[in-house]
Specification:
The protein is of the alpha/beta class. Among the domains are: 178 residues, 3-Layer(aba) Sandwich (Rossmann fold), CATH 3.40.50; 75 residues, Helicase, Ruva Protein, domain 3, CATH 1.10.8.60. The protein has 21 helices and ten strands. The strands form three sheets. The protein has a five-stranded parallel β-sheet, with helices on both faces. It has a three-stranded antiparallel β-sheet with strand order 8-10-9. A two-stranded parallel sheet has the order 6-7. Helix 9 links the parallel strand 3 and strand 4. The termini are far apart. The structure holds adenosine-5'-triphosphate (ATP) and magnesium ion. The site of adenosine-5'-triphosphate (ATP) has 23 residues, from helix 5 and helix 13.
Length: 500
């Protein structure tokens, strides 16, 4: 136990106790080995430790000149958290403008729906900030599986000062003492009518109630009450509007009982981001972290992200860390490659064993890539794709026909895919949602690296051609500048807007 004593003594500034001498010793006890500075160093650097304190201060023991960059990188790319800082919010200008106009000019309620990780909560946060700048009272609620109408609207009322209730003068005692609308609510369960009656008394402000992660609460009662509240608020022109956000393929899936309120809502499907918007996301992160991404690295991220801000943020974060680990403050395509591998490990870990085995078998039989390309198309369409996607992504009719047959065969054997007839015709679904990002990223990685290799080969060929002594003017024209030579990979954009 002497090492524990010695360690404790070191941390408490005491001298280590001498190890107790055993009663019978046949050979001299070996002298305690002095820890060499080198071994201390090795032990210190090998054993993992936190690099900054909980207060985001650099650890004083840390002798890493990149530690500050590491901390900045953490707030520059936050794949596991929505954006709350406007400086980090990329693109979406049109979407935001449309949302603000609907709330302000049309006075309708807003429903935002879209795929997981597409950026709904981030949008809600910047919209909230814009509304607060215009002096709206905004109450943000993240719905849970067990959320009830009563619980949510009591919490909302508790955030609205009595000061804005028509029945109270700003100087009234209760208003001055910081009372809220919740003080006026009865003890029994709240009904949509009662809540609307309360909000009808609002004056001098407007209230925006944000219900995020709406899909998580599946209670039909909750949804029916929300629809009724929207109807009540709209019919009586009450100064309260709802902003609802949730994962859904279509509006009806998110809000049942919708026919009665269709006129009173503006529904927006949050689209995937354009390549320019994804580049903007990375550039914002560059500015905040002080770490730069070279052109090839950026192209790789944009290609694999396929319009998903979540993928872009995740890859940029991992790639930035890879650069820092190599004592660089610029990210190269190799760093992105490492980031892609890391993302693949993460995504694979989220897939069931059964699907993992099927994916490995698909790789052996050479059909994994086509599944990956289809996953790219299905990512933003609730996991669905159909023959039209195959035609769009494989312009060669012969290839398309072969792949359609492969897909049909896999679906008939229930290998990763299921076929079904729906309103758009015969379609295919990935049986497990978690396989989509994994398959897509594998396919994107392969495609990007192949394109890059081809581009490099083109550059080499051009160089050789250039060196040829009797090069004609025409052949010199064919020389391709390295940047131009990089074959710009075409992102598998999935279906065109408006198509199923
Ligand atoms: N406009 C944006 N600019 C920069 N990063 C963004 C933007 N939109 C989203 N992100 C990033 O993408 C990731 C997912 O965003 P967000 O949590 O807002 O998506 P979501 O649609 O609400 O996801 P979920 O369906 O899981 O609730 C986060 O890492 C966030 O930082
Ligand atoms: Mg969200």
């Amino acid at each position: 136990m002497s090492w524990i004593n010695s360690l404790m003594a070191r941390s408490f500034g005491r001298k280590p106790k001498k190890a107790a001498t055993p009663a019978f010793v046949f050979s001299p006890a070996p002298a305690p080995r002095e820890e060499s500075p080198a071994s201390k160093k090795t032990a210190g650097s090998v054993f993992p430790r936190f690099q900054s304190t909980a207060g985001d201060q650099l650890s004083p023991r840390l002798n890493d000149r990149f530690a500050a960059a590491r901390i900045k990188l953490r707030s520059a790319f936050t794949p596991s958290q929505p954006i709350t800082d406007k400086r980090m919010f990329a693109g979406r200008i049109d979407v935001l403008t449309t949302l603000i106009r609907s709330l302000e000019d049309q006075r309708v309620h807003v429903i935002m729906y879209g795929e997981r990780g597409i950026g709904k909560t981030s949008l809600v946060h910047v919209l909230t900030q814009a509304a607060e700048e215009a002096r709206y009272i905004v109450v943000y609620c993240s719905c849970g599986a067990g959320s009830t109408f009563d619980e949510i609207f009591r919490a909302v009322a508790a955030d609205v000062p009595l000061l804005f209730h028509r029945g109270f003068a700003p100087t009234a005692d209760a208003a001055e003492k910081g009372g809220t609308l919740a003080d006026l609510l009865p003890a029994g369960p709240l009904s949509p009518r009662l809540v609307a009656d309360l909000f009808a008394k609002l004056t001098g402000t407007r209230l925006l109630v944000v219900l995020d992660e709406f899909d998580v609460c599946e209670s039909p009662d909750f949804r029916r009450n929300i629809a009724e509240l929207i109807k009540n608020l709209s019919d009586r022109s009450i100064r309260t509007q709802l902003v609802i956000a949730g994962v859904a393929a279509d509006l009806t899936e998110l809000v049942q009982h919708i026919p009665s309120i269709r006129r009173n809502i503006f529904a927006l499907q949050v689209p995937k981001m354009s390549a320019a918007e994804i580049s903007h996301l990375v550039e914002n992160g560059e500015e905040i972290s002080g770490i730069s991404f070279d052109k090839a690295a950026l192209d790789y991220i944009v290609f694999v992200a396929n319009g998903s801000p979540y993928f872009a943020s995740l890859l940029s974060h991992h790639a930035g860390l890879a650069a820092i680990d190599n004592a660089r403050n610029s990210v190269t395509v190799e760093d992105v490659s490492m980031a892609v591998d890391q993302a693949l490990t993460e995504f694979r870990g989220r897939i069931s064993k059964h699907s993992q085995i099927q994916i490995d078998q698909a790789a052996k039989s050479g059909v994994r890539h086509v599944l990956g390309v289809m996953a790219g198309a299905a990512l933003f369409n609730s996991g669905r794709f159909d023959a039209r996607d195959v035609d769009a992504l494989y312009p060669s009719a012969a290839n398309a026909a072969t792949f359609k047959a492969t897909i049909e065969e896999l679906a008939s054997k229930h290998i990763l895919l299921e076929a079904n007839e729906d309103e758009y015709g015969r379609g295919y679904h990935f049986a497990e949602e978690a396989v989509l990002p994994y398959l897509w990223i594998l396919a994107a990685q392969k495609r990007f690296l192949e394109n890059r290799k081809a581009a490099d080969a083109q550059v080499e060929a051009a160089k050789i051609e250039n060196k040829a002594p009797a090069a004609s003017p025409q052949s010199q024209d064919k020389i391709v500048a390295p940047e131009k030579a990089a074959v710009q990979p075409t992102v598998a954009t999935g279906r065109a807007a408006g198509r199923p």
